[in-house]
Amino acid sequence: MSHAVTVFLFTVGLFFGMLLFLEIGRRIGIRRMKEDGGTAGEGVGAVDGAVFALLGLLIAFTFSGASARFDTRRQLIVEETNDIGTAYLRLDLLAADAQAALRESFRRYLDARIEIYRKLPDIAAAKDQLAKAVELQTQIWRQAVAASRAQGASPAAPMLLLPALNAMIDITTTRTMATQMHPPAVIFVMLFGLSMAASLVAGYGMTGSKLRSWIHMFCFALAMAVAVYVILDIEYPRLGLIRVDAFDQALVDLRESMNRDIQNPGQK
After folding, report:
1. CA 180 to chain centre
2. DSSP element (H, E) containing 29
3. Residues 6+ apart with CB under 8 A from 128
């Protein structure tokens, strides 16, 4: 089952679960009113406030964390683009006869990096592309080390090219780990449980009227379900509706500039 379908089913279940608990809370409140002679809601305001405050804090923190991670992932795409572009430009420090092979390795490496994220949510295919990219990293590093020591290379090549390559390689690990950085599952379990508890106490507090306020019940459940849906969707920006794919265009544009470099070798 895909992530989008799983999140949708989870939020639909949350929505109807909250409606159910609102109704259960209301019926418990009505029964208590009959038994206590209309004093069912007295003295429970502090409990209601505590439950809703805790729920509000949990939503705020989970949304803030998901949004921060979303921005970080976008920034890492830009950072990797800059790192690859910088290393590619510094190939000019090498001897002319050593540049062609390295530039071709760079093109194949960038193709592999782009394909890793295009293959998602096919994890197996993405891992194959990641392994290919790692292999190309080793190849590029060995070629660059040999070329920077070869005759005709600039004396500054080892000091400028190799650190740039190191940054280009390091950012791949950072990006890979960033895709796996999520809150513990218990956070989402707590969010679901507190939503049910809040619905129960909200329904209990709606016993002052003999008629159900379907508008309030529906809006409360819908607002909570939508908030949780957005949190879950933004937490996995390669799998849902809210995506970071648009920022991959930076890598695609860099790849196109490498193609132009083939056509116009005198212009970089």
Report:
1. 8
2. helix 3-36
3. 119
Every domain of the chain and the residues it spans: 3-263
Neighbouring C-alpha atoms within 13 Å toward the C-beta of 186: 0
H helix and E strand count, the chain: 8, 0
Q: 15: Cβ–Cβ under 8 A, 6 or more apart, which residues? A: 221, 222, 224, 225
Q: What is the pLDDT of residues 89-134, one digit of tens each?
A: 999 999 989 999 999 999 999 999 999 988 888 888 989 999 999 9
Length of the chain: 268
Kindly state the tokens that stand for 54: 């805790």
User: What are the tens digits of pLDDT across the range 174-233?
Assistant: 999 998 899 998 999 999 999 999 999 988 888 766 677 888 899 999 999 999 999 999
Alpha carbon distance 251, 235 (integer Å): 22
How far CA 149 is from CA of 65, 69, 103, 164, 214, in Å, comes to: 46, 41, 17, 16, 77
- Per DSSP, the residues of 47-95 read HHHHHHHHHHHHHHHHHHHHHHHHHHHHHHHHHHHHHHHHHHHGGGGS-
* Interatomic CA distance for residues 150 and 145, integer angstroms: 9
Distances 82 to 65, 226, 227, 251 between C-alpha atoms, Å: 26, 36, 35, 9
